[in-house]
Amino acid sequence: MALRLDVSVRxxxxxxQQGIGPRPVKAGPRFVRYRASEVEAWLDQAQEAVA
Length: 51
Known about the structure:
This protein is mainly alpha-helical. 57% of the residues lie in helices and 12% in strands. The chain has 3 helices and 2 strands.
């Protein structure tokens, strides 16, 4: 997701702590993943807010 949004992994971590963006899913002790449907919904919502 970091590559797709052109942000750092640290930014994603900070957003998760602040409740910004789609909810991360823990996939191991050091890995998180994001559900594609939640990412798409969040991006659509963000795009609508700008328009």
